[in-house]
Description:
The protein is mostly beta strands.
Amino acid sequence: MKSISFRRGVASLALVMMAATAMTSADAKTDALWPLEFADKVRESGGSVSFVFGAKRPFAQCHASTVTEMSDGRLIAAWFGGTAEKDDDVGIWYAIQEEGKWSAPIRAAKVDNTPHWNPVLMTDETGEIHLFFKIGKEIPYWQTYWMHSKDGKTWSDPEELVEGDKGGRGPVKNKAIILKDGTWLAPASTELNGWNAFADRSTDRGKTWTRSEDFEIDKSKLEGKGVIQPTFWESKPNEVHAMLRSTGGQIWRSDSSDGGKTWTPIYDTGLPNNNSGVDALLLEDGRLLLVYNPVPGNWKARTPLDLAVSEDNGKTWRTIAHLEADADLRSEFSYPAIIRTKTGIAITYTYQRERVRCWEIPLEAL
């Protein structure tokens, strides 16, 4: 019976990936490497694939990882952990990479006895590290807090990002980006009376924030609650773009020509989305990377997890590799984070709600 179940799982995974391929750009190539093949290539290029912590951990479940590189080249990763998502014991945890090895998990924040959510790390232009996160029992009314560190070991006390806010200001899942003019641009969203995305701007290193209007949604084209959790990149000075998680089975997009102050109505990219998080990164040579589950449909499987590349600012895509491709569609590899590092890129993501996996990929492996 076990072999029959496995074969059914493989067949189901194949159907998911066939559907995803059908929804992806016709120009997309199908020469993607499988997880073990890509891991070998990454290691042969001097990179690594690791778990941030092992099976022995001070929490039962974890989710929503984030990663940043400190000024000295070390990585720091954070996530929320506790009994299960939404439980009152969930707090914000982190670990630091020292000489290629991760420290034991350290609890960074537990502001009150309500669930904590979605940490987002950021290293600013001065080298200071910022940790944003949400707290609150119900997502539509959660609040954003942040704290700061010079070395990743000692942190300031958590404080509200925008005093009195209910619903969530600042980054909601993905990293804030620093525009070419020095503006901080945070990808934000709310979940009260539907799902809506917007951009939060700061021109004083996070002391004050100005939000854009919600991105316009044509509900005749997008089914369900809407869009949340944008990921941003700046292709040219003040030309900023967003890709968004949606309830409509696809990744949607919006563009800004004024540094994120105003945005076009969202439109369908044609890329599949399972109503789970995505993250993107623009490289200096113009290549745009995307980590996502290439699965169409609302609340569908969170496997496989792919790394894709576009050479035309997101119009067409090629899958570089399947980072994960479990035949069991109950598996979960989700909520990726991708950043630029001194030697290439780093990617973290949820691994079965039990661990956080980290890929450190040299540019020559891409």
